[in-house]
Amino acid sequence: MGFRCGIVGLPNVGKSTLFNALTETQAAQAANYPFCTIEPNIGNVGVPDQRLDELARIAGSQKIIPTQLGFVDIAGLVRGASKGEGLGNQFLGNIREVDAIVHVLRCFENVDIQHVDNKIDPISDAETVETELMLSDLESLEKRVPAAQKKAAQGDKEAKITASVLGQALDLLREGKPARLTVPKDEEEARVFAQAQLITAKPVLYVCNVEEEAAAEGNAFSARVLEKAKAEGANAVVVSAAIEADIVTMPVEDRGEFLSALGLEEAGLAKIIRAGYELLHLLTFFTVGPKEARAWTVHAGAKAPEAAGEIHSDMQRGFIRAETIAYDDFVSLGGEAAARDAGKLRQEGKEYVVRDGDVMHFKFNV
Questions:
Q1: Are the beta carbons of 174 and 139 closer than 8 angstroms?
Q2: How far, in Å, CA of 291 to CA of 309, rounded?
Q3: CA–CA separation, 289 vs 79, rounded Å?
Q4: What residues have CB less than 8 Å from 267, skipping those under 6 apart?
Q5: Which of 32, 165, 244, 284 is the most exposed place for a label (fewest CB within 10 A)?
Q6: Phi, psi angle pair for 209, to nearest 5°
Q7: Is 7 helix (H, G, I), strand (E, B) or coil?
Q8: C-alpha span between 62 and 292 (Å, rounded)
């Protein structure tokens, strides 16, 4: 399945530089002027997972296929975007199509790189973007909620649900709060809320783009962003887009030493992926054999047939059972045969809830 994250922020905060580094491409033109990104650039990157490499080693797999994470580099937003200023309409349309928002904030000083407001203040930058997103949702709901309330008064059951949950979101937006704070009271309200595709209902990951020297510990700017994220119950990571850009030009075998010299344990991509998985409540399961070892992604709480459907719809439709081995058992025992002999291979049915790291083989009949 994977998921798509929209990289957003004000112009010249490092969005395109980060996108290029993450996807190891030069698909996005990184330039020192607003709107150098006009069409959203889309790139998929394999999610690094050491567990997959270990499973492939044990099984002698010929190919290793990681799960994919999609990034969309979206044009920089300016004040008035909700009213169509700059590339506002295009920005808002593109952002509605992603699963989560990666909000890049400039947390570095550099006189050679212009800031749209001629000041470095990541909190103000975040509020500028958030305000435009909330205004867009507010305008949408101020039309939709009264219409739903009118139908609800006439006895329309679906309209009653819509008026209730979207009315709650509208109240929050009027208070200057994002729609994601809405709490649907049941599955029906949750369904209607999701279908509304409100921009501020999407989960947010703040990415603090710092100078190279601050990549390990952060700086005063990033500290303020981390406080903001904590107060909101959101996620935040500190990365240096400049370092990420350097890393992708190096041979793979040299990257570890380069990161260690900077006091870093891992590249920024790994931080963003881990935070993204947590943000969207995702988990990984594996299929392993001599031909290939492959990682797959499902939402936490997914049952075995849904996981099978990630591989092929026929597997979900004709699901019989899943042969499942926990990752730790597969590795400690040295593979599927030994795990089977040790009684660690489980036969799971349709109600089995997939666990992160499960090694699975599906039986099906269509």
A1: no
A2: 20
A3: 53
A4: 244, 247, 255, 259
A5: 32
A6: -90, 105
A7: strand
A8: 5
Handedness of CA 342, 347, 351, 353 (dihedral sign): positive
Percentage of the chain beyond pLDDT 70 is 89
**206 contacts 234 by C-beta, under 8 angstroms:** yes
Q: How confident is the model at residue 272 (pLDDT cuts 50, 70, 90)?
A: confident
User: Could you tell me where the DSSP H helices lie in 11-59?
Assistant: 15-23, 50-59
Cα angle value 159/163/166 (rounded, 5°): 125
Local structure of residue 235 (DSSP, 8 states): E
Check pLDDT > 90 for residue 12.
no
The per-residue pLDDT for 193 is 94
Task: Pull the structure tokens for residue 261.
Answer: 């010299």
- What span, in angstroms and rounded, lies between the C-alpha atoms of 216 and 227? 17
**E strand spans, the chain:** 4-8, 41-46, 63-65, 68-73, 100-106, 204-209, 235-239, 282-288, 292-299, 319-325, 346-348, 359-364
Tokens of 157: 């059951």
pTM score, whole prediction: 0.81
Whole-number pLDDT of residue 114? 61
Q: What share of the chain is helix, strand, coil (3-state, %, to 5)?
A: 45, 20, 35
Q: Give the pLDDT confidence of 53-73 residue by residue, as tens digits.
A: 999 999 999 999 998 888 888
Size of the chain, expressed as the number of residues it contains: 366
Predicted pLDDT of residue 304: 98
Query: Residue 360's closest CA among 281, 289, 277?
Result: 289
Give the pLDDT band (50/70/90) at residue 240. Answer: very high
pLDDT tens-place string over residues 313-331 = 999 999 999 999 999 999 9
